[in-house]
Amino acid sequence: MVKDRIFSGIQNSGHLTIGNYLGALSNFTKQQEKFECYYCIVDMHALTSGVNKEELRNYALEVLSLYLASGLDYEKSTIFFQSHVSAHAELQWILNSITPLGQLSRMTQYKSKSEQHADNLYAGLLNYPILMAADIILYDAKYVPVGDDQRQHMELTRDLVEKFNYLYGDTFVVPEMLSTDTGSRIMSLQNPAAKMSKSDPDELGYISMLDNPKLIEKKIKRAVTDSLNHFDYNDDQLGLRNLIEIYTSFTGDSVEEVVNRYRDSGYGKFKSDLASVVADMLKPIQDSFNIYISDKGELERIYRDGAKRAREVADKKLAEVFEKIGFIAK
User: Fold this and answer.
1) CB-based burial of residue 316 (10 Å sphere; 0-12 exposed, 13-18 middle, 19+ buried)?
2) pLDDT digits (tens, 9 = 90+) for 128-162
3) Domains of the chain
4) What is the distance in angstroms between the CA of the first residue and the CA of the last residue of the chain?
5) Which of 119, 143, 203, 234 has the greatest number of CB atoms lying within 10 Å of its CB?
């Protein structure tokens, strides 16, 4: 039976956080049993984050090792570096020619980041969604597991597919967002109104998948809550709500169970227990990570094989695109 395809990728722009794990990696391992999966380390996207070349290389191997340590099977899933498949950049340029500039400039993430870095703004940030679209449609992915913060980019991707298909004939699959079992949007520990980010300059705002137990405990104990000292899950206590969501995401307990368990215990007991839950869940991943990251030869074998498999699919699709738009065949 032919399986539907999935494409997803994570930037190597910092240490992956528990938000990356709960929102993406933990679901990747389930998806590979049901779908034909292409999981990318999107190192070309990472260039827009300002990391230096040593960080870019180190984080790339770190993310790859965490993919594997989290349970991704390189024989079941195609795992590769975005920069190793040149068709991504080639298709992006072609899509540039049919993308309205006004639509790009209205992207919420672009407007937000351009306001934050008005004195240091580059075209890569504006064109980011077009490369994301190319990433997805090169593989005729039917589903893309992304969060609500990427919904606008997905809508642009669908618009570009429909426009290209209208102009040149049916070529690409129109992708759909895939909802996941773990749908919680994990927020910053220091600013619960903002998403937890691996590029957060405040290291107390996120928990890395590689943080040791003492550091995890420190970060959770210093996590923002409130002065109400009333253990509940509501929109008026965003900090506590975020911590409860982390707890339920890791344990599978319901919100009601957690609230009833700690209602009379106070924040201190809950934070201490949460730190233990997170550290215990991350330990086997960290142990496996240490094995993978220490064997650079095996990592190279895996990412080279993944890139070869990805190129076979991507280059075939790009050749079809070339023919449709009138390029001379290579």
Assistant:
1) exposed
2) 999 999 999 999 999 999 877 788 889 999 999 99
3) 5-183+296-325 (3.40.50.620), 203-290 (1.10.240.10)
4) 33
5) 143
